[in-house]
Hints:
eight-stranded mixed β-sheet, binds pyridoxal-5'-phosphate
Amino acid sequence: MTWCSIDGTLRPLSAAAVSISDRGWSLADGCFETIRVHAGRALWLDAHLARLRQGLATLAIPAPPTLATLSAELRRLCDRLELRDGLARVQISRGVQAQRGLAWHAPTPTSVITAAAAAPWPSAPAVRLALVAQSTRRNEWSPLSRCKCMASYPDQLLALDEARRAGADDALIRNTAGELACTCVGNLWLVLDGVLVTPPVAAGAVPGVVRQHILAHAAAWGLAAQVARLTLEQLARASEVFSTNVGYGVAQLQLITAERSPAPVSMRVLQALRATADADPTSD
Ligand SMILES: Cc1ncc(COP(=O)(O)O)c(C=O)c1O
């Protein structure tokens, strides 16, 4: 049986429910964290907790009591699921409020924790095709761009959809000034003259937990890393482009353009084959 934790109580997933009057559902009014479970324990939990508390403070959502016991809570859930390597998701919304409208009346925050098995980080970075998104921009003026809040993700989905339609796996997203900000679900890094460079949070980057770890430890690994604003010109001359998050660790990005998708003919043939198989699996 699969389990989750709602407001501090373990429940079978099949019996778990959140109200349709919850503002997480109706207004994307909340924050979340995706946390790597490594050898049965939550990796870098303090950094996740700090970012979550910061995000909740930005949205003026009071931290629920479950945050004080999150470490034990996650451990209980992982033990119940017998999870060694995986990803946990902690989701906090402002809570249930039946009245219509944006204003809130001190609802009690809802907290949900789910977790599932996921492969450990690979020994070599996965290679992903990526394009520079044209469909949307990241709003570096919004305080929400500095949090992992539910409301920012539909924009990331637009960029991902654009990438997928061009045969790519990921997108580089620019901010309103045209500077590079991030990828769909990760921090962006360029290797420029041997130095790892990642955009500042002020340019619309999420303060990623992996990003923070790299910036703190790169020197000890014999690497130079810095935070600086990044342009398309720098992207064109970068010797490597990669992205980081706790889910995949490091993914190497190979740039394509929407006009020159990597293999338009083979992609067309594959799409036609898939459509044929879907339409009538028995015919040849
Ligand atoms: C837009 C964005 N940037 C960066 C990250 C990386 O954050 P972390 O390293 O904490 O996984 C994520 C993770 O989901 C993200 O969605």
